[in-house]
Amino acid sequence: MPCALLGDRASGKTTFLGLLYAAQVKYGTGVQDDFRFHAPIASLNVMSAVYEGMKDGRFPSATLKEEITELGFIFGYLRKIVGKLPYYIRQQNWVRPFSTLRFSAYDVSGEDIEEFIDTGIASRPLIQQLLKSVVVAVLVDCSKMTTEIDTPMYKKMLRYDSTVAKLLVSFQTYKKQEYDRLKDSGVNTDPPRIYPVFVLSKFDTLRDDVLARLGLHRGFPENKRQRKEYAEALLRVFVPQTLSQIRGGKVAGVSMDKAAYFLSWVRTETQEGMDPVGQARIVRTGFAPEGGGEPDFAYDEYVTFIEHFRDIAHKIPDEILESEKFQAQAMVRSA
Amino acid sequence: MPRVVIVGDRNSGKTTFLGLLYTAQVKSGSDKADAFRFHAGFESVDEVTGVFERLMSGSFPDSAAKEGVRDVSFRLGYRRPGRGILSRQRSKGWGSDAFVSFRLIVLKAFENEMARPGEGSSVTDATLRDALGSEAMVIVVDATKLTAADKDPQLVPLRKFDAAVDSLLTSIQHSRAHGAQTVFHPIFMFSKFDRVNPEALRLANLEDAPPGVKKKGPRAAYAKALLDRNLPKTMARVRSRERRGMEFAEPSYFFSWVRTDDAVRGGAERVRLRRSGAVGWEPDYSSDEYLAFLERLWDIAAQIKD
Q1: d(CA B265, nearest CA chain A) in Å
Q2: Do B60 and B13 contact (CB within 8 A), yes or no?
Q3: Neighbours of B173 (CB within 10 A)
Q4: How far apart are CA A91 and CA B229, in angstroms?
């Protein structure tokens, strides 16, 4: 099922995908074998190159980012019932052992999206694919969270907020129209739902004074409700349109209430009392029997991110299959 | 979907009003209480977010933004129980009863068109078509143009605007004279009220600031004291009673202002931003008035839905 990862230019998308690749390499090769990862060769090349660079202490280069035209990957989760079957049966394709989610990364400042927002016409295949997404993951760059209103950062965040809010309205409108179309064709189906996810990227760059003034500490809570409150305290200030349109989905007849919040950080080398010159270098963990020389990043958050989609992946196919079945019915009727 | 037309003099602040209305919705729609939700229509969201961005950057809408914002639709709902006769409709959850939709249509070049009725221009037709089918009208009264002298009514600055609004209301009334009984809701929005001439208030024996949004009686009296002098024809029209067709609901009154900073070296005037919460910013504007206005729109749309 299609899922969208939205981010601004230089918001940490490539780094996020590189770290996600690193996390799934570690997590997806565990003993349990209930999660699998796949990516098209072009995306895999980029993600592994990013990962390799990070293992060498480097962030993705601008040249590498330019090579990316379409970056995507697939998460596969072993179905619960299938997991109980003997190994040789569950390996058979006809069992359809894994529920899958197909992620694509989109640059909201890109030409395709800008054109769509300007014209409101989803003519390009990329936009049509984007609008079909059932999961929308929004990257919010914490390094742009500033309280200085006359800075370019403030204006960039303001612009990003507007763009994402407009895209959310587009998603809602598209899903509602599809739902109404099915209903008008006599198809009885559930109201549409989109699963939003927020990733607070570059969380380590968030300024202490911002956290202090919001009464937040640097540690991200583990409890789901507290995570929501923590993240929303930041979103309310820096991307209020986005937050209000996520909530507004309910008003538009498309529930987006099941939002989840994650953060991403990667530790960088700092010299006490000195500002870094040029690109910061990534701190790597020491070598150890269980693996080492890895970038020091929010691994647990990435695992939580991966696990968050397990239930959604199991649930969505049924909804979508039903919807596809109904669409086929509707087409037959109209014919 | 109920239609609300917005009429106002040129540069009376119609686009700024819509931008601030969206700002108020974003603020309420993202706050911790989560008691208010809204959805901006796909067709108008690009324009209205553009105005929001400008206001949040300290700028008033430019001519391109003014040209772009013509027709904005919103759907909104409240979670908390309301007051008065509508309290039961404002359910605690987010059921379909909690939501209402409406379209806000800005009538451009309105006075000129109304001043030459019958000439058959396409603009006149479009203006009238939108207005004739509407259920409510927001009459934006530029407070900087309120008369400050007890002079000849022919010299009142808003005289032409008054005649145009009266003419439009008359047309609406006539168009429904033979139809079923309907109620039309006039809403007066005083714009730029921070820059009202103190003499205009003194002339009407009024305080510097209007009574708060909850004091409906004194507030109505305050507004009427200004409107009777400045928009006498419009006020007479909304007070008129018809036996058949359309009748006017009791008007409601709101006061809009945005604090500004002086222009630097001949540049444009800047919107002053104020702290919102611990670290955020928002235009320094009459947010209470806009929230009350939204509630009024909800009430009107809910009544029409019933």
Answers
A1: 18
A2: no
A3: 17
A4: 85
| Under 8 Å between Cβ of B234 and B162 | yes
Query: Which residue, among A199, A198, A230, has the nearest Cα to A216 in the 3D structure?
Result: A230
Chain A with chain B: Cβ pairs closer than 8 A: 94
pLDDT digits (tens, 9 = 90+) for A35-61: 888 888 888 888 888 888 998 888 888
Q: Look up the pTM and report it.
A: 0.89
* Domain count across chain A: 1
Q: Which residues pair with B248 in a beta bridge?
A: B184
The reply to whether residue B46 touches residue A117, judged by beta carbons under 8 angstroms, is yes
CB contact under 8 A, B273 and A172: no
Backbone φ and ψ for B188, nearest 5 degrees, come out as -100, 125
CA–CA min distance A39, chain B (Å): 33
Domain span at A12: 2-334
Q: Are the Cβ atoms of B38 and A173 closer than 8 angstroms? A: no
Condensed to tens digits (0 to 9), the pLDDT of residues A61-72 reads 877 666 666 788
- Give me the count of residues in chain A: 335
Q: E-assigned strands of A162-294?
A: 195-201, 260-263
Partners of residue A35 on adjacent β-strands:
A77
Across the interface, do B281 and A251 touch by the CB < 8 Å criterion? no
**CA A139 to each of CA A106, A107, B129: distance values in angstroms, whole numbers, following the listed order:** 10, 10, 45
Q: Is A135 helix (H, G, I), strand (E, B) or coil?
A: strand
